[in-house]
Structures are given as structure tokens and as C-alpha cells.
Amino acid sequence: MAKIKHNNFIDTVDTVFSSAKDNGLLHLYTEGEYLNGRTIKINGSEMLHFGTTGYLGLEQDKRLKDAAINAITNYGTQFPLSKTYLSHPLYAELENKIEQMYGIPPIITKNSTLGHIAIIPTLIRDEDAVIMDHQAHWSVQNACQVLKLRGIPVEMIRHNNLEMLEEKIRRLMGKSGKIWYMADGVYSMYGDYAPVQELLNLARKYPQLHLYFDDVHGMSWKGKNGTGFIFDAIGSLEENIVVVSTLSKTFGASGATFFCSDSKLREKIKTFGGPLTFSAQLEPASVAAAIASCNIHLSSEIEELQTELAKKTAHFGTLLSKSSLPLVSENDSPVFFLGMGTPATAYNFTKRLFKEGFYLNLGIYPAVPIKNTGIRITISAHNRIEDISELARAMDYHFHKSVEETCSSDEKIRLAFRMEIRTKLPAKKQHSDLMQIDEQTTIKNIDKQEWNRYLGAYNILDWDGMLYQEHTFANSQDPATKMDFFYYIIRDQKMQIVLMTYCTFGLWKDDMLSTESVSRHLEETRKTDPMHMTSKVLSTGSLFTEGLHSYIDDDHPLAEQSMQILLHKLEENYNSLGADMLVLRDFKPGFRWDEMIRNQGYFKIDMPESCVIEHNHLRVFENYGSILSSRSRQHFNKEILPFEKFYDVKIKDCLNEEELNRAYLLYREVKKRNLAINTFTYSREVFQNMNSSPNWEFIILTLKDVPEKDFIGIMFCYKNPSSVYVPELIGMDYAAGDGFNLYRQLLYQTIKRARELQIKRIDFGISATFEKKKLGASILPKVAYVQARDNYAMELMQTLQNETNTAR
């Protein structure tokens, strides 16, 4: 099985967060001896606070503070004992107060994250199934990971996509008990809601469907007694609904609550629910503050607080509606999200508002897609009407400044968020008269010498190689491997080329760079649904090539501007083609324009490493083992040279029909086994076109002294006239080659053939780096830059990766 180095999700997130931190927007500290809720001090500057999730401002209420202080005086800072054994004196009163609020006895947990960890594994039975909204809070998704160890299906749907939900319900109905759908009541980034009434209708249509709501952002500011958005929407708690709420955030204290109408289930969770048994209980101060908050919730004061907040929220909403600001979701929650599109625009806007004295939250990947970076503004009781008016004025002014300074536009932002474009202004010129971009859709319209001079010396990227790719893939009748080609050449006034590249548009499997275990899981579904988890991708290069797909004259004074022009053109095509992803591939780590590209809405990932053998190794071939390291030389002398005698080796420019059939069969054998780079299987036409092209040849290995004379190994090799040899694909008969080190021998014969042709470089591809390195290959790390319409596919891949890791 070919092995590759896979991208690490945590590294990607770290890169994005580090950039925001370097811009002074994350991991900040408040200053001062006290907080009042309305203002905060950061780096010596006093700011109006529009980032709190304490929407009613109860965390600063004197009654809650006094209760907490008295509890510490009376009971200490903590009661260090599991609640299973003994609760401190205030717990019973809190449980009683919450039951008065909801009309249902609660389970109280340390916080909502531990609550989900305690509740979900006990609530979900082995015969059940789970479906999650892909924007459900991380704590819910994380708690569901343990279910997979028990073999419980855990599926995911796109945000609020009820058609997708219903399709999954139908598929799970015949093989599951209860089918649990997990969602947030109010989503923390955009402030939008779960479609509760539609979900209730689905639950009536499908009695197996049960609903699990995390309503921590809907608490207190909504509903009778401040019981939250979900309770306000459902009226009464039926047996097929459970709700997790909070005693922190808007409630003003600490902890979380769980509600269900099944008393037996409630007792079961309370008796043994993981952290409920083995974690510390809430501190006396927190419980006392929660009791004080309950008293407010049980009085008419809660309605006054809700009404006052609603006025402020409505005021802000009205101001935004009269502006041109791109508000992503219009609703009456106290959470607002302004689309900025790229991180560069969001950073610029946030810093401007900081300087004006307004603190706002940055919404960035992975909480939102990288191209859906934005600003989350929350309205609270602490904010005054005049503060809100000033904020709206400042935002309207600075938004247009930020958009202009970062070469963005309102139209671009609205396209990124799939919002209605209100006024389509004439497109601004994205480049000066100093540069021009030439876009073509076929290599035939590009001068052969010019193309080969700048990009033709790499891989299968010479003019003839591009013509082969176009002939093979642009004309393909198979939608899985069909590609459209786009060529971009940017010149200065003197017609000197500053940048040259090409792109393809086609289908990718979403798990292409995931681990083999994830791909094996998805390939089972693809047996009946071949296009499952695939995306339309616009990418530099093609899936048939790797390596340097872009030429940039780094020393040219307009080099950076040429890169900006290219990014703008790619974004135009990305939108006009309706692509799901945009990928810039195969750059060296430390690429000069790294920060600029990331700030334009791309996140960086590690690509599989390339393997290359340069001319120094090919020049001294008579005793090839002598140029290898001592360890590799031992491997060469033991695992490769002694097996050469078992093979007849032929080099053929053209295969007959029988040989071509055999070659295609062996290719499919390798493809079936190798999911390290999971692409679609090529059609026979790809190999027929190789067979009729003068630049392709075939290295064929047949075992000597074997009655069955069918060849058992083949390497499909491209001869780039610029002295590059490209063993592009391989075919093997695993059974016949067992014990004869067939794969290693194919690699070695490829090296011998390149030396025979006096070719200076072998592009050995991106898998099995360990084997190729032992034969003298250099390993070249590469990165790519990616943006996507949403995070659904990436989050699902990550979920599947976690599942396969824990199953080992």
C-alpha cells in the first residue's frame, strides 16, 4: 500500500489562528481592576464592549455578585466531593428554582461541554443513530465521537438542510431504533435559528426521529421565565425532545442544565452520566449566583429585561437594514454577523473599529469557512442606544474603507456568502495599464516556444504534454474525469511574462487527501452512489500532474500585483463556474506570497511530498549502489539487484490490443488497492491516447522461465523533451509478483531507463516516498492554498478521520 504524508487539521487551524493573533485580534487580555460590562480596556485603550454572550448583563448584577460572595463566606470556595455522594447545601434550592422555571426537574452539570459528554453516551442506545447539523456546537460533535466506538452511526448534514436530513432519516429507518437529530437552538456565529417547526413536522412524519437541542445561546433573552428559544418554540417538552441549556452566558452564573420528560431516563443520566459522577460539582458561589438569577427569571423583571434588550436589538437591526452592510442572517436574536469575505478585509475592519473604540469578535475558520470570515457583534443590556448608534455609524463608514483598502467589493462578499447582490456596480479595474492578462481555454492558442520556456521543463507540462491532457480529459465522455482547461498569462507593458499558469475545472473526491481508512469507508457508499462526497473544483494544475504549475518572476517589480490579478481572475471563474472549491497547488513552503494569499480567503494545507531523482544520481549509473547512503546501499544490494535476474525487461513505444488490455487491467489492480491518493479511476481511453502519443513509452516486466508469459508489471512513462522522465502510472499483478519485489524492480528499471535516455531528472510522483528515498530520491515538501463554499465536506472528513482513528 502506497504511503503518503497527510495534512494535519490542527496545523491548518494553528496557521489561521496564528495569523489573526499576529494581527492583534485573538488571545487578547482585558486590563483594569474591575469590569462593568459596557466597556473593556485592551492594550491601554478603553472600548465599548460588543462581544459578550451575557446578553442580559446579569453577570454584573449586584444581586448575583452578593449571593456569590455570601456563599464563599458561608461555604468556601468549593465543595470538593462528587455530587453522586453529597451535594453542598445550595444545590437543592437551585434544582427547585429551575424546576419552577421550566415545570420539569433538571439535571445540573458543571458546564454544557461536560453536560454533553455526560448525557449523550447515556441517552443514545446501541441500536440508535445520530444525525448532526454540521454547524452544531463543537461540544456536541465531540461528545458524539464516543458513540462511534460502540458502532452507532453518526451522520452529518449541511446546515439546516431538511431535504438532506429527511433523506438520511429514510436511509436509517429500517436499521436503527431512535434516530436523533442534534442541532443548536440559536447558532453562535450567525445568530440564526434551528427550523424548529419544520423539525417538529418531520418528527410527526417519522416517529423514529428524536430531537436534541443545544440552546445555550437562546437562553434567558427569550421565552417565558427566560427558559430560552427552544422552549418558547416548542411550547411543551414531548418525549422525543431533549434540551441542554445553560446557567452561564446570559443566565449570569455557571453551569448547564438538561431537560427531558422521561423521568426514568433523567434518573439514569443523573445516576451515572460520566462527568456527573466523576467530576467536581459546581462551586457554592456559582450555585448561589444561579439561585439569584433564578429569582429574577421567576419574577416579572425578566420580561422587562427581555423587552429592553429586544428594543436595543431591533434598533441595531433597523440601523443595519438602512445601511449597505452585508448582514448574513436577519433575525431578532442579539447575535449579528457581518460578512467580510477574506481575512484581510476582516482584519482591516476589526482594527479600524478597535481604534474607534469598539470591541467586536472576529469570526474565522474553522468556526466559519475561510472565505466566509466575518465579524460577530452581540448586543447586550450593557449597551446604550447611543453606543449602538455610534457603532452602526462607525461600521458603515469603515466597512467601505476596509473593502477598498483590501481590493475587495460588496459584490464579492455577497457572492461568498450566497447573499442577494443589492446593487451591482461597474466592476473596478483590478489591474493597471502596466499589466494585462491573457486567458485561453486551449494550449493551441499559446505559443509553443514561449510556454515551454516558462513551464515546459516540469512534469507533463510541456506544450505537447498539455495537448495530450486536453485531448484526453477535455474531450472525456466520463464526467468523473472530464476537465476544462484555462490558461493565464500576465504580461507587463513590454510584453514580458510576469506570471504564467494553467487551471482545470473538474470533479474531485472530497477524501482525495484523507487517510486510506476514510477513503475505504466512503468507497463502500460509492459502490451504489459513485458521486457521493465529490466536489466541483477549480485548481491550478490538474489531477494528472504534480509539481510546479505556476511561473512567477519574483524579481519583477509587478510580481505581487500579477499575483493579485490572478487571484481576482480565479475568483471570477470560481463563481461563474459554480465551483465548490478553489485550490492553488504545489508551492514550496515559505512561498513569498503566502500571507497575501491566506489573507485573500485561503487556508494553507500540506500536500503529499514529491519524489525527485536529479541528474547527479543518473550520471553515475554503472555502480548505482555506490552513490546511495550505506543503509540504502544495503537495501539496494539485498532487495533490488538480486531480483533483477528474474525479469525480462522491455521498453515499448506502442502496445498491441492484447497488451493494452493487460496494461489497463494491471493499472486497475493497483488503483483498486491504493487509496493513499483517492482519485477517480481513469478510463481505458487515457491509455489508448498514451499509446498513440510519441512522448509516451512503457516499461514492461515479465518473469523469466514462467509458462504464463503475460507481463506482470508496467510503468507508464512520459518523456518530456526538456529532459524530464515522468513515471506517471503503474500497473502490477500482485499475485504473480509476490516474492519477487515487483514494485521495487519497476522503480529501479525506471531509473535505468532514464539513464539510458540521458534524461537529467525523474519526477517520481507523490506516494511511497520511503521506497523511492531508498533509491536516491530527494523528498520535496509542498503546500496548497484552499478555499471552499462551506466547511461541510472538511468537517465530515475530520469526523470520519476521528472515527477511524478511535476504531483502531
TrEMBL record:
Ranges where the Aminotransferase class I/classII large domain occurs: 47-394
Pfam families for this protein: Acetyltransf_6, Aminotran_1_2
Species whose genome carries this gene: Flavobacterium saccharophilum
Keyword Transferase part of the UniProt annotation: yes
Cofactor(s) recorded in Swiss-Prot or TrEMBL: pyridoxal 5'-phosphate
Name listed for the protein in its UniProt record: 7-keto-8-aminopelargonate synthetase
Lineage: superkingdom: Bacteria
Domain BioF2-like acetyltransferase: start-end pairs: 631-772
Keywords on record: Transferase
GO molecular function: pyridoxal phosphate binding; transferase activity
